[in-house]
Write a structure and sequence with these properties.
PP-bd_ACP, Non-ribosomal Peptide Synthetase Peptidyl Carrier Protein, Chain A, about 50% helix, about 90 residues, mainly alpha
Length: about 90
Amino acid sequence: MADGLQQVKNWILERHPERQDIAPDLDLIENRLIDSLSFVEFVFLLEQESGVSIQMETLEVDAIRTLAAIETHFFAAAGATAGAEAVQA
């Protein structure tokens, strides 16, 4: 797991002390680990950790639905460019 992705995971876990871990395929939104109150802060953290500028109006929710999707779109070596294109398209 990339350091930046681990920071994202840690951020989520800090807000949900009842959880010990988050499975890579767990739906973060459906399971209310990211809600409307924390969404903007979460996206800002994701930008900081990944180095990818995220345009809120074009953000594909599926790109941030799971840790696996976040890794693919924002942290994978090949996915970093694809992630930038996905969120800015």
